[in-house]
Design brief:
Bound molecules: copper (II) ion
Number of domains of chain A: 2
Oligomer: heterodimer
Shape of chain B: elongated
Order of helices and strands of chain A: HHHHHHHHHHH
Structural class of chain B: alpha+beta
Distance between the termini of chain B: 56 Å
CATH class of the largest domain in chain B: Mainly Beta
Mean pLDDT of chain B: 91
Largest sheet of chain A: none
Helix content of chain A: 55-70%
CATH topology of the largest domain in chain B: Immunoglobulin-like
Largest interface: A-B, 20 and 20 residues
Order of helices and strands of chain B: HHEEEEEEEEEEH
Number of strands of chain B: 10
Helix content of chain B: 25-40%
Number of helices of chain B: 3
Number of domains of chain B: 2
Number of helices of chain A: 11
Mean pLDDT of chain A: 89
Largest sheet of chain B: 5 strands, mixed
CATH superfamily of the largest domain in chain A: Cytochrome c-like domain
Radius of gyration of chain B: 26 Å
Chain lengths: 214, 231
């Protein structure tokens, strides 16, 4: 009887250990990130190339710090929590399904390892020559080549899809993005966008999208 | 019984639970009777030395009454269930008590947002309070809701109210509930509406009138929804 009981305890301990290992999953962040990214691929595409029909932007190759920061903002309601931001509201819910901060990190790590994908132009009426001139105001943060500047929390934007750049500039301008408490970096960018008119937004989108991502 | 697992917080929650228990009880009774008879007969007439099968053609009333009497009794139970169900249906879905307050419930992939009537208690006026995720109502009041969808079909489900109502794009669907106590309870979506359906949740905050008034006073200025002035 005693032996039998001991056997049960040993079995339980081993099962528990195995269970714990199974929950932890693979420890390689890249493998874990790839697995977690399955949840993002339906909208952002298998390679992070984005799906304009779903308003989901290309995210492949965005720096890890930026992806993490944005996911955190979605999770705390600093981005994507405006009632008129249907695309942001969708992304907010998806970010909230990440079970833990650690998952934010591994998925951000994986996203940053994906290649940047070029997008075909889709916004009409933008003039990239005028956009290039207007971009002078942006270069101090996003860089002359649009490569971004982590010190200023400014993401790379060169080669980003024009429709996404245009929507985000309009969102910043209207206070749909960058106007919530807890979004200090968004507020910086919002201040840059309030002065833009519709035509300037299109011009800038055309220029930004045409810049090569380094 | 059910209330041990999920609180009853609307006036009709109890009626719906009674209905569910009634259905469970009647259907469960016949289930156990039928299974009991089945297993009893299987056991009684199991293969035995010298046993021979009888030929029964199923026309002798002596045999058919074992089917026809339970059949009649079950039909009677059905009538009881239908009458009880229709009464609850009429109470919950076919009557519209005069509301103390009207709110708009907006469903979209994958969030709940709400429009409260604000200090003037009238919907669609400048002082309306729009919120994401949180619906505030007063305990003990009858609330009428106007349910709309921005995109696909959703379903407004509040388990503690035993309330579930589909939202159909293009339609304004009205319904009501009357709360019975204070507290914060879950709102969920009960109609598959896309990849984020399972995470489409909200909260209903039921407060005493004073607390609610405080909340209204704190949120009434349109500031929260209009574009804030550029800094
Ligand atoms: Cu839904």
């Amino acid at each position: 009887m005693r032996n039998r009981l001991e056997g049960v305890w040993q079995f339980a301990a081993v099962a528990l250990l195995l269970g714990a290992v199974a929950c932890e999953g693979p420890s390689d962040p890249m493998v874990r990130g790839a697995a977690r990214y399955d949840q993002c691929a339906p909208c952002h595409g298998a390679k992070g190339e984005g799906k304009p029909a779903l308003a989901a932007p290309p995210i492949g190759g965005l720096p890890r710090w930026y992806v993490e920061a944005q996911l955190d903002k979605f999770r705390i309601g600093a981005r994507g929590a405006h009632l008129e931001d249907s695309a942001g509201l969708r992304m907010r819910t998806m970010a909230l399904t990440l079970p833990a901060e650690r998952e934010v990190q591994v998925v951000a790590h994986y996203v940053s390892s994906l290649p940047h994908a070029a997008s075909a132009p889709s916004v009409s009426g933008g003039d990239s020559t005028r956009g290039k001139a207007a971009y002078a105001a942006c270069a101090s943060c996003h860089g002359v080549d649009g490569a971004g500047n982590p010190q200023l929390n400014a993401p790379p934007i060169a080669g980003q899809a024009d429709w996404y750049v245009a929507t985000q500039l309009a969102n910043f301008k209207r206070g749909i993005r960058g106007a919530k408490p807890g979004d200090a970096t968004g507020a910086t960018m919002k201040a840059m966008a309030v002065g833009l008119d519709e035509q300037q937004i299109k011009d800038l989108a055309a220029w930004v999208a045409s810049m090569p991502r380094g | 019984m059910i209330s041990h697992a999920v609180d009853q917080v609307s006036t009709f929650a109890k009626d719906i639970d009674v209905l569910i228990l009634l259905i469970c009880g009647l259907v469960g009774f016949w289930f156990f009777v039928a299974e009991g008879v089945l297993f009893f007969l299987v056991f009684k007439y199991r293969a035995k030395e010298g046993g021979k099968a009888a030929y029964i053609d199923g026309t002798d009333p002596k045999h058919t009454r074992f089917i026809s009497w339970p059949h009649r009794l079950i039909l009677l139970c059905d009538v009881v269930i239908v009458v009880a169900a229709v009464r609850v249906w009429v109470e919950v879905k076919q009557t519209m008590p005069t509301p103390d307050q009207t709110v708009r419930v907006v469903s979209q992939q994958w969030s709940w947002s709400f429009q409260h009537p604000g200090p003037d208690n009238k919907l669609d006026t400048a002082d309306d309070i729009k919120t994401l995720d949180e619906l505030h109502v007063v305990a003990g009041q009858t609330v009428q809701f106007e349910l709309v969808s921005q995109d696909v079909i959703h379903s407004f489900s509040v388990p503690v109210f035993r309330l579930k109502q589909d939202a159909i794009p293009g339609r304004v669907i009205k319904g009501w509930f009357k709360t019975t106590q204070t507290g914060s309870y879950d709102i969920q979506c009960a109609e598959i509406c896309g990849i984020g359906h399972g995470a489409m949740v909200g909260t209903i905050v039921i407060e005493q009138p004073e607390r609610y008034a405080e909340w209204v006073a704190g949120h009434a200025p349109v500031a929260a929804l209009a574009t804030p002035a550029p800094k």
